[in-house]
Protein 1
Amino acid sequence: MLRSLGQRPVTGSDEDPRVTELRTAVSRLRRELAAHPAEFTDRAIAEDELAALAAMAVGGMPEIPRLRRSLLLIAGAIGSVSALSRGLSDVRQAVDLFGEPGR
């Protein structure tokens, strides 16, 4: 039936797997941060930058310099919160999949 309408069945995604990995890691860290009971000075910065990363991942291919800037801000904001270190590490690994920014 789909073929008669000129459409093809969805068997997989054309999305870049790096973007998928980034979206997954960011989503996980956002949930962990939301569940973290302690308030800390730069929590709002971390939340804002995670929202920016999530928006970039939804928008398709993110800009590498912007990804790295957000990662640095997030790391600075929550780097000392040991309970969030695994999630932060996952986000860093996802950003690293995009390689180095062009110079």
Protein 2
Amino acid sequence: MPEQETTPRLAGYLDKLQPELYATLTHYSQQLVDEADRIGIPRRTLELINYLCSQINGCAFCLDLHHRRALKYGETEQRLSLVAVYREVPLFEPSEVVAMKMAEQITRMSSSRPSAELFAEARGHYSEEQISVICMAAIGINAFNRLSILSEHPVRAAKK
């Protein structure tokens, strides 16, 4: 078994080392939520995107954060526990499934790019404007995942 690293990757968290750049990223995130609200993408759908991408990227900090946020927006523990197999269970709405397919393909673009067929499927549930926000949501959470992984943001025990 390989020996675990004991030296931190960085001398601090990226968000603390580059606060102005981090502020730009958080501003992007807030603008995205505001736009999603304006055009009718449910917060629950955004949190499913955030949760799935964080699972794929292995970002424990973001998984924890978006688990709590998803519950706040009415998501259930059962559905969250099944996000990794969203295509195999009938618990997700077709519009949520296509949003997660889009997010997954964007997250895995290095091995497989989103297809024209996937965009056509998305158009069956969303407007072009909504599809663009779904794409931007996946791009944003991927940036946050990388920031948290590189920073080694800790997951703290929930308060009882």
Protein 3
Amino acid sequence: MHPRLRTVLPIAIAAFTFASCSKDDAPAPEPAKSGNEILSSTRWVTTVVTDSVGKDVTAANMGFVGLADYLPNGNYVFYNKDGTPRGDEGYYFITPDNSKRILVSRTRNYTRVVDVVKLTKEIFTYRVVNGNGATVNVEHKPVQK
């Protein structure tokens, strides 16, 4: 081996190793969570129901108000806001594109498909047609522990 190569080669290897290791120190981006993972990460409480122009219509839509547990196994349980059971349990899932939430109630024998307006770990809002035929947005936030 050439004498200069013996000197330069170890320096080049050390520089390359240092440069490549320093990039490993940067935090890896957190993988995006699916809608099912977001829903099952907390208990949700209804904060407001609004009509198509943003007016608070919660009092007229109490059937959508309460607590919701979306479990990691795909089951859900709904409660009244005071924590008493509502008698509504079944299966749920969010479509892969996070645009729809589907409920299949085992206890009340219905299936409901609603549009997801917003779904993050801080807020869950869906759009539904209420019993009077009006479209409303139902907003939920995580229960503070």
Protein 4
Amino acid sequence: MNRTLIATAKIVFAVLALIGLALQLFIIPANVAGLASAYAEVASIEPVIIGWGAFVIACGQAAVIVTWRLLDLVRDDSIFTTDAFAWVRALTWCPAAIGLSTLAMFVVLNAAHVTPPALMLGMLAAIGVSAAATLILAVLFTLLRQSASMRYDLAEVI
């Protein structure tokens, strides 16, 4: 990866992190408050919905931070070292946390009888996408470990 592409990716990630912050602080609370004033069943779980939304966005922001660090490792040509393992492992947990929290929110919404079909189907889809992303990242982590091992072996030969 060339340095221009890495710098561009970092600028995009910084903008995404700032948008996520705005969503957490202003947009989600305002929208959930509007829903709570219109629907009594939402009012009883308003803080839970806001907390879940903020958590999901925080997981996305964590993924951005981890990817930022991985870009630094790519730039320094040290992505195939053990330094990257913890970062990729952390990146793998981001969609897993989103999926598990969405599953918990699905249960909470069902218990509160807030079950519009489009919302429930969307949450099930999000759980499925999170599971798939987690599995893909787990496979990529395994590939990284194997590549790092091969690179180490090759360095010993040379």
